[in-house]
Amino acid sequence: MAQPLTFQALPSREHVLSSAENFVLYVLLEAIAQGGAGARLPLNLGVVLDRSGSMYDERRLEFVVEAVKFLVDNLNPDDKVAIVAFADKAQVLTSGAAIDKAGTKRAIDDIDLLEIGGGTQMALGMRAAIDEVRKNFAPQRLNRVLVLTDGQTYEEMACVDLVRQNPDIQFSAMGVGVEFNEKLLMRIAQDSGGKYHFIGDSTEIPSIFEDELTGLRAVSVRNGRIDLVLSQGVQIREAFRASPEIYPLGEPLVGADRRISYQVGDLEAGVPASVLVTLVLPPRKPGAVRIAQTSFHYQVPGSDEQSVAADVTIDYSLDRALTSKVNGRVMNLVDQVSIAKLQAKAEEELKAGNVDRATRLLSNAIQGTQRLGNVKATQALTGLMDQIQQTQSLQGKAAKTTLLNAQAVVRKTQMLDPKMLEELKQQQ
Question: Which of 148, 85, 153 has the alpha carbon at shortest distance from 119?
Fold first, then answer.
């Protein structure tokens, strides 16, 4: 029987210098689900749509209607979907009962007739969608809430609390235009293992819904979790989600058992779910040493939790020629994470009024994307730097659009093609 996934723990170097104090080693923890690992999971979706006054700008509501109709047309008989609209109030347009495609389309066509105010109370919409998802909640379903908004919401922490209170539901967040709080939507998606989408052009809304549906259909492994147990003397400095998107995983909390856990959520077939950790090693005598134990815990539809383990063993050596060899795959991701950190730091400096510092950081990030051959990220960051030099800030629609686009592009892991991977293996 074919294995449902592969899991590996790859150190950036197999050999480290015995005499080095506080040697920095990167370890990539990566799981990749195989196609056909289990039966396709039926969907249980709550779709939360902003219907505030600003959604009439740039025909946003029209494209939302088109996107939801596409979603409904592509549901299977065993899928469930509830549609919720919100502004100052929230209203359930269709519940997640038996699918009535024609009725759902009529309801979404009439979304602009709802008397729910003109403000933005996203938490009300999220809560109503969660209640609908709970009605059909089942472990053998993909239980997810999709949230789309184009503005700042009242009671932002109420949205975060709803995600925290429902750890068995994933949330994907979509921001349209430039007025929404991208930090809030990123947090909603990251904390739940969902996806964050920046939609700069309203015409992209249907394709984003299509991408979400395609991703849901490709899920073959559920509830992924990476456990890392550090050996004595080994310290952890930081951890980042490395793919499919790049973002920090917060301050590492090491318990008395020296165990750290990272939730990576559901896995789509063929899409790596990776965590990159930075470890600090003490000096040791020459010889092979296990510096950490790792394991990946998961569920395949129709079965109990399973796990696969991998040790992280490196060779302490006095041979500097050996210690100079690096794993190209790991270091490529280290570079991508570093670029994302530079972009985020540049944004912080700009908000603090340090324009020169921000442009220097962006210049370093651009050099990194050029070295990696990531043309799209280079263009996005170059555009951002041009906007900063012109405006000395990120005020205005064009500048904010450029920033949001750069954030989205840099966060998206640049997947290496098979030919490049083979070349990296030969270099090791």
Answer: 153
Per the DSSP assignment, residues forming a β-bridge with 196 are 173
Neighbours of 368 (CB within 10 A): 20
The Cα–Cα gap between 153 and 201 comes to 21
- In the chain, the amino acid numbered 326 is V
Mean pLDDT by runs of 10 across the 428 residues of the chain is 86 95 96 75 96 94 96 93 96 85 92 90 97 93 96 95 96 96 96 94 96 94 94 95 94 85 93 96 96 96 89 96 93 96 94 93 96 93 92 82 93 66 48
Assigned token pair, 345: 């730091």
Strands 235-243 and 247-248: antiparallel
Domains parsed from the chain with CATH numbers: 5-34+223-326 (2.60.40.3670), 43-219 (3.40.50.410), 329-411 (no CATH)
**Residue that the structure tokens 């659009």 belong to:** 401
Q: How far apart are CA 259 and CA 295, in angstroms?
A: 11
Within 149-298, where are the H helices? Answer: 156-165, 182-192, 205-218
CA atoms within 13 A on the CB side of 177: 19
- Cα gap 294→312, rounded to integer Å: 7
The region that residue 16 occupies, defined by phi over 0 for left and psi between -120 and 50 for alpha, beta otherwise, is beta
Q: List the one residue out of 69, 71, 96, 94 whose CA is nearest residue 81.
A: 96
Q: Of 222, 234, 303, 307, whose CA–CA distance to 265 is shortest?
A: 222
Residue 302 burial (CB count, 10 A): 10
> Hey, which bits of 231-324 come out as E strands?
235-243, 247-248, 259-268, 273-281, 287-299, 305-317
d(CA 98, CA 164): 29
